[in-house]
């Protein structure tokens, strides 16, 4: 078991020091560490079980989720989102970051009304197109590698357009696009001006809509293929990039939001 894992568990016991918040359930030379962390988010109690294998943090932890409020299906949904998050993170101690992510997952998915949830569930299965803007990309190789990995994991196609404005065009299931955006906001994808790892707090969704709403004459039924990176140096080149994927209607919609 790595020293980093032991140090992390010690830190977790200090962070989650309230009554019943933290328990070290197992410490084994053969099976690794197992910790339990109990949290209450928006009135929803959640019990998280993290199994830190011997190779952790080189490999993500196994995660179990239970709750007296959430259904089994909802617990499985929380677990899957945390596993997605863990898979997207670099091989560093990550349990605290995953517990912090729980707040976002529960708030976004399980605190609305049943009617609203039902409507959103239908929308999430619909093919969707979204345009995002990023604030900066300093650690280019790391950042782009993560975006490419997430698009593949979430079965999304699109483009990363690098120029005066940094744009990400995504196409796929709305639920997967939402997950992509959540990862952007919660994973340390880049570095700030001082070289410290940072999250994409300044990401903006410029436009999103069912893909069918862009089905003008120039779009037809064609869909974006793959996830590719394109550099542009002028407005004409940016316009051409949208024409290449038959998304001039989307471009006209977001043009007022872009840097001049």
UniProtKB/TrEMBL annotation:
Spell out the GO cellular component terms annotated for this protein, sorted alphabetically and separated by semicolons: cytoplasm; nucleus
Gene3D superfamilies on file = Ubiquitin Conjugating Enzyme
- Where it mainly occurs, coarsely classed, is cytoplasm
Domain RWD as annotated: residue spans:
7-109
Concerning InterPro entries, the annotation shows: RWD_dom, RWDD3, UBQ-conjugating_enzyme/RWD
Q: What is the lineage of its organism?
A: Eukaryota, Metazoa, Chordata, Craniata, Vertebrata
The superkingdom listed in its UniProt entry is: Eukaryota
Which PROSITE patterns does its entry note? Answer: RWD
Q: Which PANTHER family match?
A: RWD DOMAIN-CONTAINING PROTEIN 3 (PTHR15628:SF1)
- Identify one Pfam family in the record: RWD
Q: What is this protein called?
A: RWD domain-containing protein 3
What keywords tag this UniProt record? Cytoplasm, Nucleus
Single Gene Ontology BP term?
positive regulation of protein sumoylation
Instruction: Give its localization.
Output: Cytoplasm; Nucleus
């Amino acid at each position: 078991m790595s020293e980093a894992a032991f140090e992390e568990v010690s830190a977790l016991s200090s962070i989650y020091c309230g009554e019943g918040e933290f328990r070290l359930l197992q410490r084994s030379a053969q099976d690794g560490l197992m910790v339990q962390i109990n949290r209450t988010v928006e009135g929803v109690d959640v019990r998280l079980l993290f199994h830190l294998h011997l190779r952790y943090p080189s490999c993500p932890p196994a995660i179990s989720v239970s709750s007296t409020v959430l259904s089994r299906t909802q617990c499985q949904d929380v677990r899957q989102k945390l596993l997605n998050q863990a898979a997207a993170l670099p091989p560093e101690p990550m349990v605290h970051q995953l517990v912090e992510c729980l707040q976002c997952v529960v708030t976004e998915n399980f605190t609305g009304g049943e009617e609203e949830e039902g409507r959103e569930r239908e929308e999430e299965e619909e093919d969707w197109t979204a345009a995002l803007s990023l604030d900066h990309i300093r650690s280019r190789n790391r950042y782009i590698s993560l975006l490419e990995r997430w698009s593949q994991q979430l079965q999304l196609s699109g483009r990363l357009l690098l120029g005066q404005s940094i744009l990400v065009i995504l196409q796929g299931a709305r639920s997967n696009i939402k997950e992509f955006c959540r990862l952007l906001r919660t994973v340390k994808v880049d570095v700030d001006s001082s070289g410290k790892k940072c999250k994409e707090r300044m990401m903006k969704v410029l436009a999103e809509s069912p893909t069918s709403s862009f089905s003008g004459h120039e779009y037809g039924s064609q869909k974006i293929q793959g996830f590719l990176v394109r550099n542009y140096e002028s407005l004409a080149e940016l316009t051409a990039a949208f024409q290449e994927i038959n998304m001039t209607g989307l471009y006209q919609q977001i043009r007022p939001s872009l840097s001049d």
